Amino acid sequence: MKLRLKWVFLGVIIITGVTAAAVMPSAVENMLPEAAITVPVRHSHIRTVRGTGIIRGTPGTGFTLNAAVREGDINNVKVGQPAKLYGAAIGDGDYTAVVREIADVAFQREFMGITETVVNVVLTIDNTNGFTRASNADDDNDIAAIRPGYTAEAIISVSEPRELLLVPYEAINQDDKGEFVLVLVGHTAVRRDIITGLELAEGAEVLAGVREGDELIVNPERFTENMLVRRGD
Q: In what helix (H) or strand (E) does residue 190 lie, and over which residues does it extend?
């Protein structure tokens, strides 16, 4: 009889929803399915364009990078935009550069067995003496040198920083109505329809539907709307 009463009590809580969940005894709460929780995060994002090519010049005259940029990205590149350089010989981001010139014509090149159309972009490397401290330098003698003929990749910043609200992909689900998340309110999984924007490695930009501080249920496909759950450890 006691066991039956316990399950009847749990059924009443499930029917009555959030109000009952707010006064739920801990013994009953422990019987609810556990949900892992994540939260939206603020992220400063700058749009970038990549270009690869050959370093030219001398320590006396200064160095430039002639980088090939794909035709789909070239309209975002402007003279004066800053860039960081990456390469096996020069380190990652130790050198900075500025877009100096954009070619008027495009050309085709073979890259990893694929023919692509690119435009040549000339970047002036800031460290005109050809040397800079390596990122892991312990003293002034630990330096990375630029030499003509080295290959490098330029990551060109083509926008001002923009604050995004990102949601981890594992908190987003989709059905016939569109994309949504489940927000934990008390002990209740509340559906929120969302509108997403940019997709980054860190998560998806959410333009509407969630706010900072919302507790989002991870793997929402395992739960249903208005289901009672308990917060995971």
A: strand 188-193
Q: Read off the DSSP letter of residue 33.
A: P
Q: Do the beta carbons of residue 205 and residue 164 sit within 8 Å?
A: yes
Secondary structure (H, E, C), 74-136: HHHCCCCCEEEEEECCCEEEEEEEEEEEEEEEEEEEEECCEEEEEEEEEEEECCCCCEEECCC
Query: Phi first, then psi: what are they for 119, rounded to 5°?
Result: -125, 135
Q: What is the pLDDT of residues 85-134, one digit of tens each?
A: 999 988 888 889 999 999 999 999 887 788 899 999 999 998 655 454 44
Per-residue pLDDT at 25 exceeds 50: yes
**Which H or E run contains 7?**
helix 2-16
Quote the CA–CA distance of 91 and 119 in Å, as a whole number.
25
Structure tokens at 131: 């040397």
Q: Which two tokens stand for residue 94?
A: 């130790």
How far is it, in rounded angstroms, from Cα 164 to Cα 178? 21
pTM: 0.67
* Other CB atoms within 10 A of residue 8 CB: 10
What dihedral angle (degrees, nearest 10) is formed by the CA atoms of 194, 199, 204, 208? Answer: -30
Two structure tokens written together for 54: 């050959």
Domains of the chain: 19-44+163-231 (2.40.420.20), 47-157 (2.40.30.170)
With tokens 């023919």, the residue in question is 115
